[in-house]
Each structure stands twice: as C-alpha cells, then as structure tokens.
Write a structure and sequence with these properties.
By secondary structure, the protein is of the alpha/beta class. The protein has two domains: about 230 residues, P-loop containing nucleotide triphosphate hydrolases (Rossmann fold); about 30 residues, no CATH class. It is about 40% helix and about 20% strand. It has eleven helices and ten strands. It has a six-stranded mixed β-sheet. It is globular. It holds the Pfam family ABC_tran. Belongs to the ABC transporter superfamily.
C-alpha cells in the first residue's frame, strides 16, 4: 500500500493550522515513527490517513485514490488505528468479543475468526484472558486488547498512537515483537511516540514534526544526528545517543555494543 500526503493542510475553525502543507509518502513495510512535542500535529496527521479527519486543503491518496472518495469505514478496513487511550476504543464485555467485533462487521466466518484469534491472542499476550472483561485488565493488557482488536482486521497498515503510554519494560518489549512480526508479514506500522528509546529500538525511519510541518524525514541515525533541528522541535535524542554526542563521538549510537564499538574506533584515531 502507498499513502501519499500532498500539501496537506488542516485548519481549526479559529484559523490556526494544525497541519501546514505536509508532503509525505508511506509505503512498503519499513516501520515509521512520527515524533515531536505536543501540538506538533502528529495525531492530527495520522487521523487523516483513514479519514477520521478530512483535509482543509491538499490531498491524501491511498494507492492513488483520494481519501475523499470513500467513507472512514471503508478506509478503516485497510488502515487500522489504535487510540492512545484504550478506554476510547473498548466497549464490549470480554476480550474475545472485542476481538470478534470488527471481523463480524465485515462478514467474516467463525472459522476464520477463530484462526485469527488464536494467532492474535498469542501475539499480544492475551491467550489466557479472552473471557476477561477488558475493564478488569491492568493498564498494560488493556492496551494490548485494543491492539489485538485492530490486528484481527488484518489491515495492511497499523497506526499506533503513543503505544508506550503507561507501559512497563515488558510491555515495551511486547510492542517491539508485535511491530517486528507485522513487518515480517509485509504490513506497515506507523507510530506516534514521545519515547525516543522505543523509537530508536524499533523504527528505522523517523519523521520529525514541529508546528504542523515536517522538519526531518529519514533514517533514524540521520534524524537523531541533527541536534540543532531536534532542539528547534524540543525533542531530545535517546539517552545513550545523547551520552555519545556529549562524548564527542562522530556518529549516533543507540545500543551499548554500538557505543562501545564507537569508543574503540575513536581511540584508534
């Protein structure tokens, strides 16, 4: 699937622009993280990808078709959106029913639903909790219930809005496994995140936004090496990357082994 944003503008009734002429393309299976401070336009942008919001001007094209030509329900069958707050998405009395709801709406048979549920429940770590009420789950598992409900639809694109919010280390690792598995399946993950360590660990492409504009878009090592631009957007690189930069190392690093290797290389010059 190819998603193209062309001169995308979204204005509030006050006239203020949440998006100000954004041009971006998403395609393939390379996971993409969208970063920036609150108010940068990140959530506004991704809500245009499946028609939750519509452009004030400009275009959103899905495989060449303008998003204005169809309803949000149609696009939601192609692009799954996982809200930041699970309470905005959950409304049924068991995890199982949450997982079944979307597939039933599109006429999927029970046999296929059961096959999908087995795979998805295992992936999100809820196999033993399918008959639990979602609001009886802890915050971490509640989030994974919303993720599972979207994954059941098998959309080509999965959009995560602040997936690490409220997560512990184990939850972040579970999220990482999900993103990697979706990539292996040829599906595109797009995530909004303030967690730069999570971004650097799980995403190869990073888009930096500030005040409704795209300031940087490229491989994570290139984006996180642009210290002055990151400061302009009030974004700081991951902790280990900052240590490396402050130590005068000539390339961004994201893992301890990479840091050690960079230190050794610097000592040989």
């Amino acid at each position: 699937m190819k998603i193209e944003l062309q001169e995308l503008v979204h204005s509030y009734p006050s006239g203020d622009r949440a998006l100000d002429g954004v041009n971006l393309t998403f395609e393939g299976q390379e996971p993409v993280a969208i970063i920036g401070q609150n108010g940068a336009g990140k959530t506004t942008l991704v809500k245009h990808l499946n028609g939750i919001l519509r452009p004030s001007s400009g275009h959103v094209l899905i495989d060449g078709t303008d998003i204005e030509t169809a309803s949000t329900a149609k696009w939601s069958a192609k692009l799954g959106y996982i809200f930041q707050n699970p309470d905005d998405q959950l409304f049924l009395e068991s995890v199982r029913k949450e997982f079944e709801f979307g597939p039933r709406q599109i006429g999927m048979g029970q046999e296929e639903i059961d096959r999908r549920m087995e795979r998805v429940a295992d992936l999100v770590g809820l196999t033993g909790k399918l008959d639990t009420h979602p609001f009886d789950l802890g915050p971490t598992d509640k989030k994974f219930c919303t993720i599972g409900a979207v994954l059941m639809m098998n959309t080509q694109v999965v959009i995560f809005d602040e997936p690490t919010c409220g997560q512990d280390k184990a939850g972040n690792e579970r999220l990482g496994r999900i993103i990697a598995e979706l990539g292996r399946q040829g599906r595109l993950c797009i995530a909004i995140s303030h967690d730069m360590k999570f971004v650097s660990t799980n995403f190869s492409r990073v888009v930096l936004m500030c005040q409704g504009k795209v300031l940087l878009d490229g491989p994570k090592d290139q984006v996180f090496s642009q210290e002055s631009v990151l400061k302009q957007a009030y974004v700081t690189p991951p902790p280990l990357t900052r240590v490396a930069q402050e130590s005068g190392l000539d390339r961004p690093v994201f893992t301890v082994p990479a840091f050690i290797e960079a230190v050794k290389d610097a000592g040989q010059h």
